[in-house]
Amino acid sequence: MSAPEEDYRSALTAAVGHARRWLASQDERPVGPSRTAAELEVDFGGPLSRAGTPATEVVDYLAVKAEPGLMAMPSGRFFGWVIGGTLPASLAADWLVSAWDQNAGMRFATPATAAIEEAAGTWLLDLLGLPPNADIGFTTGATMANFTGLAAARWRLMADAGWDLEAEGLTGGPRIHTFVGIERHDTIDLGLRYLGLGRPTVVPVDGQGRIDPVELDRALGLVPARAPLLVCLQAGNLHSGAFDPFTEAIAVARAHGAWVHVDGAFGLWAAAVPELAALTAGVEGADSWGTDAHKTLNVPYDCGIAVVRDTTALRSAMGVHASYLVHETGGPADPFETVPELSRRARGVPVWAALKSLGRDGVAHQVRELVFRARQLADRLAALDGVEVLNDVSYTQVSLAFGDDATTRAVTARIIADGRVWMSGSRWQDRDILRISVSNWSTDDDDTTVAVDAVRDALAAVRGS
Ligand SMILES: *Cc1c(COP(=O)(O)O)cnc(C)c1O
C-alpha cells in the first residue's frame, strides 16, 4: 500500500468507527450536550502548534473531545426546531461526495455528479408536483433556496419593467413591492434584505398563521398601477404546520400581476403524500419554490433546493455571465447557473441516494409517519391535565402551552434539563409555547412514549415546586 493510501485507510477507518459509535449511542444518550462551547474551546483552542499531527490522531481527538458537546440531532427523541435526522443511504452518499471531492459547478467537468443531481431534480419535481421543466438549484439550505427564487423574481420583475438590473443595479430603478404573511419565516426577510428589496408589507393571517387572501388582495390593490409585485407564500408554518391557501392566494396574486414565491422548507413534502395533497393544492401555480432536503427528507446538512419555473430569470440572476449571453433555454443548466455559488460540493448526491433508497412509496411513508407521530403526540398530550394543544395538528408541528407563560417556560426548561427528549421553546400568537417538531425518520412509538412521559414529569415537577 502506498503511503497516501495507508494514510487515507487509517483515518477513514477511525472515522467509521467513531461515526458508528455516535449513531449507536442515539437510542440511549441524553439528547442535549453536556458541555458548552466555551468549555470546549479549551480542548480545541490554544495556539496552533508548529508541528502537525498524524491524520488518524486528529480524527480520534476530534471525535472524543467533541462528543460531550454534540446534540443528539439524529436521535428519534430530538424534536427541536425543524431538524431532520439522516437516512443511512444519504449519510453514506455524503461521505462519498467528500471522497470524490468534485467541484460540482460545471456539467462537462464533473459529469457524474451533474447527471446524479439532474436525476434527483427530475424525481423531486415529480414527487412535489412541480413543473417538470423548472430549473433546480441545490443550495446550502432553505434560506438560500428562498434567496435564489427571490433573486430570479427580482430579475424578471425588473426586466419586465424595462430596467436593466445588471447594468444599473437597483438605484433609480422601479421599486419592487414585496408581500408576506405576518407569520412567514424570518429568513424570507433576510433574503429580501440580501437582495436590497427592503422590508416586506405584512398581510394578516388566520388563527393558524395562514395568509388571508382577501387581505392580500387589499394590500396588493394599494400599490400604484404597474408597480412590480412579489408575493411570498408559505407551505408549513413553523408553529402550527399550516399551509397558506395556495389556490386562492395565487389567483389573487396573479390578478395583480405578481411573481409568487413559496417557502416550503419542510411543508412542500406534503405534496408527496396522496392523503395530504389538499394541504399543498394549487402550490404548483407559483413561479418559484424553496425547500430543504435536510429537514423532512433527512439528508445530512447542508442541503436546500431552489425550484424556478422561469429558467431564463434564474440563469440570468445566478449565472456567471452577462445577460446578452443567456440565450439558451431548454437545455440543462450548468449547476453554477442555478445557485449563488460557483464552486460547491455535490450536495444533490445525498438527495438522489435518499430518494433511491426510499422509492416513491418510501418518501410518502416517511412524511406520513412524521405527521402520524405528531398527531399521536398531540392526542396523548392533550389528554394530560394542564396541557393545551394550541394548533390544528395537520402536519408535523405541535404547539403546546401549560397555562400561563411562566409555567410554559419553566416546563420547557425542565424538559431540556431532563435530557430524555429535546423540544424548543418559542413564542406564537402572543403566548410562550413549547413546540414539538417531528422531523426524524427514526422517531417511533418508544420515542413518542418517552416524550409524553418527559412532558408529564416536567409539568408535575413545575407544579410541585
Ligand atoms: C428552516 C426554515 C427556513 C430556513 O431554512 P434553512 O435550511 O435553515 O436555511 C425557512 N423557512 C422555513 C419555513 C423553515 O422551516
From TrEMBL:
<dbReference type="InterPro" id="IPR002129">
    <property type="entry name" value="PyrdxlP-dep_de-COase"/>
</dbReference>
<dbReference type="InterPro" id="IPR015424">
    <property type="entry name" value="PyrdxlP-dep_Trfase"/>
</dbReference>
<feature type="modified residue" description="N6-(pyridoxal phosphate)lysine">
    <location>
        <position position="295"/>
    </location>
</feature>
<dbReference type="GO" id="GO:0019752">
    <property type="term" value="P:carboxylic acid metabolic process"/>
</dbReference>
<dbReference type="InterPro" id="IPR010977">
    <property type="entry name" value="Aromatic_deC"/>
</dbReference>
<keyword id="KW-0032">Aminotransferase</keyword>
<dbReference type="GO" id="GO:0008483">
    <property type="term" value="F:transaminase activity"/>
</dbReference>
<dbReference type="InterPro" id="IPR015421">
    <property type="entry name" value="PyrdxlP-dep_Trfase_major"/>
</dbReference>
<keyword id="KW-0808">Transferase</keyword>
<dbReference type="Pfam" id="PF00282">
    <property type="entry name" value="Pyridoxal_deC"/>
</dbReference>
<keyword id="KW-0663">Pyridoxal phosphate</keyword>
<protein>
    <submittedName>
        <fullName>Aspartate aminotransferase family protein</fullName>
    </submittedName>
</protein>
<dbReference type="InterPro" id="IPR015422">
    <property type="entry name" value="PyrdxlP-dep_Trfase_small"/>
</dbReference>
<comment type="similarity">
    <text>Belongs to the group II decarboxylase family.</text>
</comment>
<dbReference type="GO" id="GO:0030170">
    <property type="term" value="F:pyridoxal phosphate binding"/>
</dbReference>
<keyword id="KW-0456">Lyase</keyword>
<keyword id="KW-0210">Decarboxylase</keyword>
<dbReference type="GO" id="GO:0004058">
    <property type="term" value="F:aromatic-L-amino-acid decarboxylase activity"/>
</dbReference>
